[in-house]
């Protein structure tokens, strides 16, 4: 298995910690993504690469009928354990286990960069009703805040962060040109240790060897225990949700 595939499949090893420590998504991002559908009604929504259900829970709380699709068994088990009232299915973006034209929107949270997009985009187009929406989003730390930038720099590992530019990737004849916006968000952490537990759920941390991980964690912990913003009790990590939406057009 190459490194990309190994990383795409790495999250299950940290499934419980992932569910515990990763941030959720701003509700404003979900609402903005669904605007092109022009309705307040309950929609059929697919959360693709749903992980432990961070975005699934937000979609469900908005009142939509949600199907969550996730290939990793441990991640899917956490989702089933934690998010109730949704349909949860094993499956990949390149072969989505739902029939043609049965969903109003497909959401992808912090996972589009793991897909084989040449295969995934026609699959997403297949399951969407005409006029349906594809929404792709990431939630990332705001690195113009000094301590957050320092932490990001310290958490770099011997494997690079992976993320593609969806503006070019989403160009596909089944989809209208995408629109992009951002929403401020934050991640509440009770302690420096909790911030480090969150960082350790990223694939670049999961796939490195124990020695490298321990050295990085030591460095981050020392830093957070010294910084005035983070040393005394709970703090919020400033995040930005970056959201892309595009509409399924008839060919
Ligand atoms: C960073 S996690 C994001 C999970 C969830 N959407 C969230 O926001 O918390 C990436 C997820 O993508 C899944 N994944 C990786 N490759 C995939 C593929 N080809 N098709 C569908 N899901 C995939 C992984 O198993 C993992 O659960």
Automatic annotation (TrEMBL):
Keywords: Methyltransferase, Transferase. GO terms for biological process: methylation. The keyword Transferase applies. The keyword Methyltransferase applies. It holds the Pfam family Methyltransf_11. One of its GO terms (molecular function) is S-adenosylmethionine-dependent methyltransferase activity. Gene3D superfamilies: Vaccinia Virus protein VP39 (3.40.50.150). Residues 46-135 form the Methyltransferase type domain. Belongs to the methyltransferase superfamily. This is Methyltransferase domain-containing protein. It comes from Lentzea jiangxiensis. The lineage of its organism: Bacteria, Bacillati, Actinomycetota, Actinomycetes, Pseudonocardiales.
